[in-house]
Design brief:
- It comes from Thermocatellispora tengchongensis.
- InterPro entries: BtrH_N, DUF4872.
- This is Lantibiotic ABC transporter.
- The protein folds into two domains: 128 residues, no CATH class; 142 residues, no CATH class.
- Helix content is 50%, strand content 14%.
- It is built from twelve helices and nine strands.
- The strands form two sheets. Strands 1, 4, 5, 6, 7, 8 and 9 form a seven-stranded antiparallel β-sheet that branches. A two-stranded antiparallel ribbon has the order 2-3.
- A hairpin with a 3-residue loop joins strand 6 and strand 7.
- Helix 11 runs antiparallel to helix 12.
- The mean pLDDT is 94.
């Protein structure tokens, strides 16, 4: 058995920030999950319904691994990323760092992990790995998935090698801090402004505040769109509320990030943006509840009410980002 020493296996709400927290705490930098999410300019929105998709995808954040890249660039961290199509090389890439006493981040498809109760393919899941033995890998996943967990090495290999939307080629990564600890407080305003700029100037109508408006137009059709409404709609609502796809979890994280920021920076636009994202987080939870009720009851009236809230959310988030862009 090989275990990296001094690992705090703390499972948080979101997979990528959970993994980043493990890697950075081991390096000596302990930031809250909302601060990691905000400094990585993690908030976004996408509504996607392509050919061959069983059900529409709602994403409330930037693409998988973009948050990690953003955070590393902003704080001057050394981010070493390794990818390969070889299963043997993929394991060697990870084991070498573990053997040297450094935890590793992995991007994989959570469908193959034994500790996941809901079997859904998602190739953008990220975990931290801090040890292994002959049979198992020792991982840190989100609190919802158990925090410190084990995965069979064969299952982990399948998860890392899976191909499909948002997957990577056995991607693993490590993070090293610069000699001088980064002054992360100086990067708060640039991170907020970059996030706001991207949200407001999204290149297609499926993204940003226009993507939320797109969702408002499409959600009323979901009872007809779903193959199994009683399963598909509650599942979509659960992902929105607990996994962040669609809004609720990530809006709460961004609200809390802005709440930490107002304790450090005295700015009226920042306070106003924080208040608006507090409103948005509550409304996203209401949307998820209405979508679940529509699936359970078959009553399209719940989806019409969700449409109205989504229309309001598009306006609220646009207003918030316009304020935050002025910082």
């Amino acid at each position: 058995m090989t275990i990296v020493k001094d690992i705090e296996a703390r499972g948080m709400q979101h997979c990528e920030t959970t993994a980043l927290g493990v890697l950075l705490r081991h390096e000596g930098l302990d930031l809250s999950e909302p601060m990691l999410f905000g400094l990585g300019s993690g908030l976004s929105f996408i509504y996607w319904d392509g050919k061959g998709m069983a059900f529409p995808f709602l994403g409330g954040r930037v693409k998988p691994f973009d948050l990690t890249r953003n955070l590393a660039a902003r704080l001057g961290l050394t981010l070493l990323v390794e990818e390969t199509t070889s299963p043997r090389k993929a394991w060697e890439n990870v084991a070498a760092h573990i053997d040297a006493g450094r935890p590793v981040g992995l991007q994989l498809d959570c469908y193959h992990l034994e500790h996941f109760r809901a079997k859904v393919h998602f190739g953008g899941h990220i975990v931290a790995m801090y040890g292994y033995d002959e049979h198992d890998a020792y991982l840190v996943d989100t609190g919802q998935q158990g925090g410190a967990v084990r995965a069979g090495r064969a299952a982990l290999a399948m998860a890392r090698a899976e191909r499909g939307p948002m997957t990577a080629k056995n991607r693993s990564f490590t993070i090293t801090l610069p000699e001088r600890s980064p002054c992360w407080q100086d990067q708060i305003i640039p991170a907020i402004k970059d996030c706001a700029d991207a949200f407001l100037a999204a290149p297609i109508a499926n993204l940003g505040h226009r993507g939320i408006e797109k969702a408002a137009a499409q959600v009323p059709k979901w009872l007809l769109r779903a193959g199994d409404p009683r399963q598909d709609l509650p599942q979509a609502a659960l992902l929105m509320e607990k996994a962040g796809t669609g809004g609720a979890l990530f809006r709460a994280l961004y609200r809390d990030f802005l709440g930490e920021c107002v304790q450090l920076i005295d700015d009226s636009d920042l306070r106003a943006g924080h208040k608006l994202y507090g409103e948005a987080a509550i409304l996203w939870t209401d949307v998820a509840t209405l979508i679940a009720k529509a699936g359970e009851s078959g009553d399209a009236g719940y989806l019409e009410r969700a449409r109205v809230l989504l229309h309001d959310l598009s306006r609220i988030e646009k207003d918030a980002m316009q304020l935050l862009r002025r910082l």
